């Protein structure tokens, strides 16, 4: 029964494009760590040979069925038991790589992993045509691409999914991985190709066609390409806004010495990352702490307290750097101590008003546990007047955590605005490679086409559209220059993926 099933699989299986490439293997789970389970993956034409040799089985593995098998290293006549492991076989082309694949779910001890990897390595023998070697980074995904199991945007999505640190990054990577970007790019390509086809008709039948017909076709192609150009420009704009999510939103904590900047950083990160002390000037330099705030990657920077009267050279340097951090960050949280007069020094007021663009500041009135309701109201009013109501004001206490949740909500709201995302709409993260081809090839080709005025040079118009279409082909890997991009795309991967 099982053999019959196996036979039917064989009947319909095709030969993968990479059939003559070496069979590769790798530890796909984290190396160098003890774990309950470690997965070794093997892909290529010699998977079954490896299966027979390791398990001593006489019959072929049933595709897609897990079975518990003893694994042996056959040294001479003696069989050495290495592990008892779950074995899973995928037959080409229905596997991640499109080749035969074998997965060994081993016990995760280092010695077990080492012995099984060693046993697989020993099965390689080039003289007998058994080309078996350890995989290079990204080689499994590269095989998947070469066998048409995924396009380059999906492959890049796999790498992004593995690298994703926050919820928003995960959502965006999943979008690429599931082929949504590919579908969009393919749609754009068909529109351009359809434009080329119509222009080609003008070239082929030009002399027989009426001038008005020719103009009507040109106008229609032009209109379509103008709409497409707009759509791609919007897409690129969204990519640029979303890239803030990939690198992390830069947030700087600024304020007078002792206002509670380090305490606020600790409250937001929920640990004791920064040194808190009641000696003013404790933070001498800017400290970057990467954190996850409500699903957004944030690089929060604690800076030296800003005051004008310091003569300490180290502190002066720290203040300079704090100001530089404030100017280059995406958002500043200005921390104010309500028990101090003045609430905001003139130096700090000038700096915030002149050096930081308006919409990028949140004011946090800290230490609310030290003032009563009326006092806090007066402080908030004064701060409002100082900054002409330009910035949102939040009241917090780092001692009893009051208002922190509210502040985090406000931060999340600002991050949504900065990245052009919301919890309902996914961010758009694509590789630098894709963004570059979109702007340098696709948008360039469309612009050149659109700047061409009339019927004079239809051949040139076709060339420009072909340039744009080729660009999209380069992005998905469906077109020329694939070899040249393979290295760029797959070098980002880890071994075993
Ligand atoms: N009562 C009260 N004290 C606080 C609060 N936040 C911070 N403090 C105290 O204020 C003092 C200064 O806090 P830090 O967080 O070190 O202030 P900073 O702004 O980082 O100080 P510098 O590094 O010197 O610029 C410490 O003694 C904190 O315990 C608060 O909300 N309430």
TrEMBL record:
One of its GO terms (biological process) is tRNA wobble uridine modification. Residues 248-416 form the TrmE-type G domain. It comes from the Eukaryota. InterPro entries: G_TrmE, GTP-bd, GTP-bd_TrmE_N, GTPase_MnmE, MnmE_dom2, MnmE_helical, P-loop_NTPase, Small_GTP-bd. The keyword Nucleotide-binding applies. Transmembrane segments: none annotated. GO terms for cellular component: mitochondrion. GO terms for molecular function: GTP binding; GTPase activity. Pfam families: MMR_HSR1, MnmE_helical, TrmE_N. CDD domains: trmE, TrmE_N. Keywords: GTP-binding, Nucleotide-binding, tRNA processing. PANTHER family: TRNA MODIFICATION GTPASE GTPBP3 (PTHR42714), TRNA MODIFICATION GTPASE GTPBP3, MITOCHONDRIAL (PTHR42714:SF2). Belongs to the TRAFAC class TrmE-Era-EngA-EngB-Septin-like GTPase superfamily. TrmE GTPase family. NCBIfam families: mnmE_trmE_thdF (TIGR00450), PRK05291.1-3 (NF003661), small_GTP (TIGR00231). This is KLTH0D08074p.
């Amino acid at each position: 029964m099982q053999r019959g099933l196996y036979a039917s699989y064989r009947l319909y299986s095709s030969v993968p494009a990479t059939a003559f490439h070496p069979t590769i293997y790798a530890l796909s789970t984290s190396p160098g760590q003890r774990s309950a389970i470690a997965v070794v993956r093997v892909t290529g034409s010699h998977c079954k040979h490896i299966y027979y040799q390791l398990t001593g089985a006489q019959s072929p593995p049933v595709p897609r069925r897990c079975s518990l098998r003893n694994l042996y290293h056959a040294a001479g006549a003696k069989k050495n038991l290495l592990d008892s492991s779950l074995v899973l076989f995928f037959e080409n082309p229905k596997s991640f790589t499109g080749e035969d694949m074998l997965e060994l779910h081993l016990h995760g001890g280092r010695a077990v992993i080492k012995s099984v990897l060693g046993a697989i390595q020993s099965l390689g023998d080039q003289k007998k045509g058994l080309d078996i070697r350890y995989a290079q980074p990204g080689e499994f995904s590269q095989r998947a691409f070469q066998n048409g199991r995924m396009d380059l945007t999906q492959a890049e999505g796999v790498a992004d999914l593995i690298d994703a640190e926050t919820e928003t990054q995960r959502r965006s990577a999943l979008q690429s991985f599931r082929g949504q970007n590919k579908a969009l790019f393919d749609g754009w390509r068909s529109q351009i190709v359809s434009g080329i086809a119509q222009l080609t008709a003008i070239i082929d039948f030009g002399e027989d066609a009426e001038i008005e017909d020719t103009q009507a076709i040109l106008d229609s192609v032009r209109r379509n390409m103008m709409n497409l150009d707009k759509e791609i420009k919007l897409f690129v704009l969204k990519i640029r806004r979303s890239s803030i999510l990939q690198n992390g939103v830069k947030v700087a904590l600024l304020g007078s010495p002792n206002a509670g900047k380090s305490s606020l950083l600790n409250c937001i990160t929920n640990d004791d990352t920064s040194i808190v002390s009641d000696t003013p000037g404790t933070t001498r330099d800017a400290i970057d702490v990467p954190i996850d705030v409500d699903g957004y990657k944030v690089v929060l920077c604690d800076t030296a307290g800003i005051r004008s009267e310091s003569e300490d050279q180290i502190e002066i340097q720290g203040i300079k750097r704090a100001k530089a951090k404030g100017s280059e960050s995406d958002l500043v949280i200005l921390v104010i101590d309500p028990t101090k007069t003045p609430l905001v020094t003139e130096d700090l007021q000038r700096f915030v008003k002149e050096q930081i663009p308006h919409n990028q500041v949140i004011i946090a009135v800290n230490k609310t546990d030290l003032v009563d309701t009326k006092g806090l109201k007066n402080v908030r009013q004064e701060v409002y007047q100082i900054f002409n109501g330009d910035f949102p004001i939040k009241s917090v206490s780092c001692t009893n955590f009051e208002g922190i949740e509210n502040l985090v909500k406000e931060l999340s709201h600002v991050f949504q605005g900065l990245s052009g995302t919301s919890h309902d709409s996914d961010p758009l993260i694509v590789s630098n490679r894709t963004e570059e081809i979109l702007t340098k090839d696709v948008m360039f080709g469309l612009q050149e086409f659109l700047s061409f005025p009339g019927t004079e040079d239809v051949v040139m118009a076709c060339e420009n559209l072909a340039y744009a279409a080729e660009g999209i082909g380069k992005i998905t890997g469906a077109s020329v220059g694939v070899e040249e991009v393979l290295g760029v795309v797959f070098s980002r991967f880890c071994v075993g993926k």
